Amino acid sequence: MQPPLVTIVTPSYNQGRFIRHTIESVLSQDYPHIQYIVMDGGSTDDTAAIAGEYGSRLTFISERDRGQSHAINKGFQMGHGSVVAWINSDDVLLPGAVSTAVDHLQRSQAVGAVYGEGFLMDELGNLKARFPYTRPFDLWRLTHVSDYILQQSVFFRRDAVKDVGWVREDLHYTMDWDLLIRIGKRYGLRRVPHYLGAIREYGDTKTASGGQRRVREIRDILREHTGMRVPPGWILYGLDTYANILCRKIEAGMPESLRRLSEFLQMSVMDLCATIISKTVWKGQGWYSDGWVGPSMEYWLPHGTGHLLIEGELPPSPWLQDQRLAIYSSGKLAASYSVAPGSFRVATSLPTPPNGEPLRLRVECSKTFVPGYSWENNLDERQLGFLLHRLEWKGVDFYPPDKDPEFSVDGPNSHHPAQPSNGATAAAS
């Protein structure tokens, strides 16, 4: 069979100092069927001259547009690939990224996109460290808390992008996050165990300079997708942004003679924000990175119908005797199960949500315990109900952050990120 055509779009405007690196990263891919389009917004620097050096190996279009999202949409709609991606004019694809993404898309026919690991890159193009936030696909966390997916590592099915309505052109900072949420709700996403892209970090990027405008846009899209007045992600990104603004003002307003006071005040601000985030954001889902579930767990599943399979383990704790799990689907009780100590496996049939919406799942435990001090002498004050090993829905598996058996990445800093509410690992007793 002929491998699918992949259309890659680079939106560009006056990025001549970086764009050669971006172009080379695309044209040096080992995949044989790439259509590469550079959508330039009418640059006045040497962007056109650099692109011209590559002749027919790429399509270069320079004309005024309505912004980055408009340029991406024009490129996608002009292209013919059944797989589409965009790479910004200051970022890069890593070797083998396209062939790896296509292989995983062909293996995971149901998902709307795949994404991988990636690197942070300095202004000179040197890889600095692993992008620290990447984690297995978790629709609830993506819609409520954070954009943990590196856009430079994402490859979409064109039909999925078209079906959900392309990239939103009214968004300036969050158009990639919004698109990932919309595709995730309807089709699901899949992480692949490879490094696919790198993002360049420097002071002039949109993310770095977005400030309060970026926070307001994050608030608006999360309100839209969750229906919550105060979504956890608004607290997370808002506190982080405003804390940094306040710390810069403290540093600028304090004389050198009060440098220690300035450092103390800045540290106090950051500690307070970290405490608020820990108590209001990371505990919200109820499924921790070590696999434990609290009194209630929230989880969203991509649109579909079928059986939900839950595999877990109940420790032989006297506090958890007669444990009962109640499973709610979109707010309505779907099933209730008694769970005995040891490994367990339960399945329940769930209805199809209307209008392509995801399934909003909640699991409640009738009993919980507090581990206290673990064997590592770490105080664990969480209320815990059981260990959840796997959720399976229509043949797509969902694992807690450090438990995906298919995932193994080689490379610097290739560990899985863990974000428990504290650093402890629960010990059943």
Short description:
The chain has helices at 16-27, 47-52, 68-78, 97-107, 139-144, 158-164, 175-186, 206-209, 211-226, 232-253, 259-282, and strands spanning 6-12, 34-40, 59-62, 83-86, 92-93, 113-121, 127-130, 155-157, 189-200, 292-293, 296-301, 306-314, 323-329, 332-339, 342-350, 359-365, 372-373, 379-380, 386-393, 396-398. The chain has 429 residues and is an alpha+beta fold.
Characterise this structure:
There is one protein chain. Helix 2 (47-52) links the parallel strand 2 and strand 3. 31% of the residues lie in helices and 27% in strands. With 429 residues, it is of the alpha+beta class. Mean pLDDT is 88; it is low at 410-429. The protein has helices spanning 16-27, 47-52, 68-78, 97-107, 139-144, 158-164, 175-186, 206-209, 211-226, 232-253, 259-282, and strands spanning 6-12, 34-40, 59-62, 83-86, 92-93, 113-121, 127-130, 155-157, 189-200, 292-293, 296-301, 306-314, 323-329, 332-339, 342-350, 359-365, 372-373, 379-380, 386-393, 396-398. It has 11 helices and 20 strands. The protein folds into 3 domains: 6-201, Spore Coat Polysaccharide Biosynthesis Protein SpsA, Chain A (Alpha-Beta Complex), CATH 3.90.550.10; 230-282; 292-398, Jelly Rolls (Sandwich), CATH 2.60.120.
